[in-house]
Amino acid sequence: MMERKGRFRHQSLQDRKSIQKLLDAVKRGIAKGELQFGDDTGEITLHPKGLMAIRVTATTEDDQSRLDLRITWANDGQDKKDNGKLKVKGG
Question: Out of the domains of life, which is the source (predicted)?
Fold first, then answer.
């Protein structure tokens, strides 16, 4: 859902395989230096470069779990604060 100029937001239900394809596309886009997002309501193109900050939040409560990934970078190339090396284990 396009909310305002310069912002793209989308929400839908997907299975694990679809989410994996989406994350693979994000990975390729970061490597290429261009991320394109779009749906029927709008689109946006981002150009990741330089050092990027990543914030990972994982929670589980009652019958729901949540994973938030936030990747940010300065369009002018200025560096951000670093909290050390991130460790992620799958399976």
Answer: Bacteria
